[in-house]
Amino acid sequence: MRIFLDLSYLFCFGSMLGYGIEVLFRRFFSAHRWTNPGFLYGPFLPLYGFGLLFLYGICSLPINISPSWLKASIIILILGIGMTLVEYIAGLIFIKGMNVKLWDYSKMRGNIQGIICPLFSLFWLILGAAYYFFIHPYIQQALDWFNANVYYASYWLGAAYGFLCFDLICSFNLVAKISKAAKSSKILVSYEQYKLSAADARRKRTSQFLNNNPGFKEFIEVQKRRSSELMGRIAFKDEATKEVRKADKANKEQRKRNEILSKKDLEKELDLTQNKPEEKEVKK
Fold first, then answer.
1. Which is more confident, 261 or 14?
2. What global pTM score does this model have?
């Protein structure tokens, strides 16, 4: 049971982490725009989930090789080759089974069927090295925490898998429609290009609707101005409350100082009154 929960946690965590990596990579390096990198609607990339399972499994094996640098080199090489194979198998399943290409490396040098290429195999090798040296101990700590708080963590894990199952049903429904059209036309559909063209079509429809309905466009602009004004007021109130709190804090500190000074003055007066009779006796 514990092994099943560990594997479920690793798959879910890897899928979500991989989604974040791909979103940032496509935004700043490849597509230069915010786009959904996977065939699912939600923040999951199952390819990275299986990849994390593979990385964790290889790094957890008791491999006794000396010296240590040779052991690390062999494990990292296995990780890079294994991740490339996982990528190739996943891409091949969609191409052969559904006539859908989830990613396309056909413009890269040395590519094989546009599914894998030397450049991204190098990236997998670097990722494997980073996992082996830096990430694996933290993954082990996360699993230990998960097992120590299994009732609390399993609740959120179950919610994530429930959302993932619903997402899989909806996404495969869309992919099945695309696959049916692709097979009837005897073509291979690039899912990435389909998503980009669909996003552009939605933007065009939105712009056409706004141009054809200037009243609605004006309404949106008014709402934007009102929301910005409201946010400005909230920010001003926050600054005002900060200033009021600072002033209250300063007043409290001043009152404390005054109380301390008044106590010192009283102590001085008491000392003087006690010393006066002694002075009179000395004069006598």
1. 14
2. 0.70
Angle between helices 150-185 and 191-212 (to 10 degrees): 90
For residue 229, which phi and psi values (nearest 5 degrees)?
-65, -40
Condensed to tens digits (0 to 9), the pLDDT of residues 189-232 reads 888 777 778 777 877 887 777 677 777 667 777 777 777 777 77
Closest CA to 38 of 168, 202, 192, 198: 192
d(CA 132, CA 123): 14
Please report, to the nearest 10 degrees, the dihedral formed by the alpha carbons of residues 51, 53, 56, 62 taken in order.
-120
Quick check: 45 and 13 in contact, CB under 8 A? no
- pLDDT, tens digit (0-9, with 9 covering 90-100), for 93-138: 989 988 888 888 988 899 998 999 999 999 999 999 999 999 999 9
Contact yes or no for 38/44 (Cβ under 8 A): yes
Q: Bridge partners of 116?
A: 112
Q: Is residue 283 over pLDDT 50? A: no
Query: To 10 degrees, what angle do helices 68-98 and 118-130 make?
Result: 130
Residue 270 tokens read as: 């008491």
176 has a pLDDT exceeding 80: yes
Which tokens in the block code for residue 98?
A: 């559904």
Structural contact between residues 182 and 188, judged by C-beta atoms closer than 8 angstroms:
yes
Please report which confidence band the pLDDT of residue 282 belongs to, taking 50, 70 and 90 as the band edges: very low
